[in-house]
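Q: Can I borrow your eye for a moment on a structure tokenisation matter? Would you mind producing a protein record, from residues through to fold? Write it directly below this note and I will take it from there.
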Amino acid sequence: GGGDAVRNYLGTQGVKSNLFGIQKVLKILREESEDIVEYTEAMDEFNAYYYQAEGAAYQSMFAEHSSAKSTPESLLATAKQDIAKMEKYM
């Protein structure tokens, strides 16, 4: 569970996620898109939520030992919200 599970889902840790290698796929699809501007805007939104979720998940693994005020639970909740927003762009 926890941050590792989120990072596994996102494909930023391990290779078993369906999202593993998604950045390479997004770049290939950009070249095939009919409306490059619309596609790029959607890809940018997807990436913003993708990297925010990954960052929050990663931080959650160290929050207990940090002077930061965030808790692992609050960071995981943030990651979950970011993933929900990210999935709208899939």
Notes: The mean pLDDT is 94. The helical segments are 2-10, 22-32, 36-60, 72-87. Residues 6 and 57 are 6 Å apart (CA to CA). Residues 36-60 form the longest helix (25 residues).
